[in-house]
Amino acid sequence: MKIKSQRDFWSGLMFVAVGVAFAWGALNYSFGSSARPGPAYFPFGLGVLLAILGAVTLFEALTIETEDGEPIGAISWKPLLIIVGSIALFGFLLPRLGMVLALPILVVTSALAGDEFHWGEALGNAAVLTVGSWAIFIYGLGLVIPLWPAFLG
């Protein structure tokens, strides 16, 4: 069978691999029940959904004809390194500075990877994501995530 879209083929293959890896990794944890899900419930479900999405993308890459085969271009190293570095920085800063400071730093530094960076948009996104993360993870789910820097108590 001939690959008709290189981009879709390789992205679909990556989605399947990552989805299977997450679902398989989740098997080491307790599933719980539907009423009281355990730690494996969410990553297993997301892994299966990602693998299904990847399989659909793979199927389309092998069946739907594209004009030029959609070749894969060069890797954009600068945005890739900025985003990976931002995530690593967030992991380092979260226990030290808390979510209120670490999450906006993550959003702003990640936004620097784009071609059209605007301070207003980045700070607006940071504010919305910080309030939303607080509402979902700390208030809604009751997770123990440091909200403020450790030196503030």
Provide a descriptive summary of the structure in words.
This protein is mainly α and 153 residues long. It has 5 helices and no strands. Helix 1 packs antiparallel against helix 2, helix 3 runs antiparallel to helix 4 and helix 4 runs antiparallel to helix 5.
Keywords summarizing the entry:
153 residues; mainly alpha; 2 domains; 5 helices; flat
What would you say about this model in short?
This protein has 153 residues and is an all-alpha fold. The protein has 2 domains: 6-63; 77-152, no CATH class.
Question: Could you give the topology of this structure?
Answer:
Layout: H1 6-26, H2 41-63, H3 77-97, H4 99-111, H5 119-140
Helix pairs in contact: 1-2, 3-4, 4-5
- Mean pLDDT, all residues: 91
Number of strands: 0
3D shape: flat
- Helical coverage, percent range: 55-70%
- Compute the CA-based radius of gyration: 20 Å
Q: Can you tell me the number of structural domains?
A: 2
Biggest pleated sheet: none
State the end-to-end CA separation.
Answer: 61 Å
Classification by helices and strands: mainly alpha
Order of helices and strands: HHHHH
